[in-house]
Amino acid sequence: MEQLIARIVDNVGIDADKAQSAVAAILAFLQKEGPADEVGQMLAAVPGSQEAIANADSGGFLSGAMPGVMGLGSQLMGMGLGMGEIQGVAKETIAFAKEKAGEETVDNVIAAIPGLGQFI
C-alpha cells in the first residue's frame, strides 16, 4: 500500500493521509459494489488493501446520501478532494490494481459496477 500512496502523492500532488483515506474509500466501494469473487481476487493481490478497507472512514456527513459512483464521489469530495484529484487517485489506484491483479480481473470489476467505467 505504501508504494501506491507514494505514487499518488508524487503524481496527483495530495498529502499521504488524504491519499490513504481516498484509496481506502475507493477499495471499500469496490468491495461493496463489485462482484465478490473478482473483487476478492483483486484485493488479495493488492498489498495492504484489506487493512486499508478495515481502517476506512466510512462515516462522514455525505456517506450514504447517494448510492453508487455518485456517492463515492461525494464521499471523496467531502475529504477535500477536487474532481481532478479524484480522477488522479482513481486512475493511480486502478493502474496499481491492474499491475498486481491483472488487467482482466480489474476490468471485469469496473465493468460490473454501473457508471464506474466513465470515471476511470
Short summary:
The protein is an all-alpha fold.
- Output mean pLDDT: 91
Q: What ranges have pLDDT less than 50 throughout 5 or more consecutive residues?
A: none
CA distance, first residue to last residue: 20 Å
| H/I helix tally | 7
What's the CATH class label?
Mainly Alpha
Strand runs, count: 0
Our Rg estimate from Cα atoms comes to: 13 Å
Tally of distinct domains:
1
The rough form would be described as globular
Taken in chain order, the helices and strands follow as HHHHHHH
CATH architecture: Orthogonal Bundle
Could you describe the largest sheet, including whether it forms a barrel?
A: none
The share of residues in helices is over 70%
- Specify the structural class: mainly alpha
Look up the CATH topology: Globin-like
Strand content: under 5%
**Oligomeric assembly:** single chain
Key traits:
about 120 residues, DUF2267 domain-containing protein, 7 helices, Globin-like, mainly alpha
Structure in words:
By secondary structure, this protein is mainly α. The protein has one domain: Globin-like. 71% of the residues lie in helices and 0% in strands. The chain has helices at residues 2-12, 16-33, 36-45, 49-54, 68-78, 83-101, 103-112. The longest helix has 19 residues, at 83-101. It starts with a helix and ends in an 8-residue tail after the last helix.
SSE layout:
Blueprint: H1 2-12, H2 16-33, H3 36-45, H4 49-54, H5 68-78, H6 83-101, H7 103-112
Helix pairs in contact: 1-2, 1-6, 2-3, 2-5, 2-6, 3-6, 3-7, 6-7
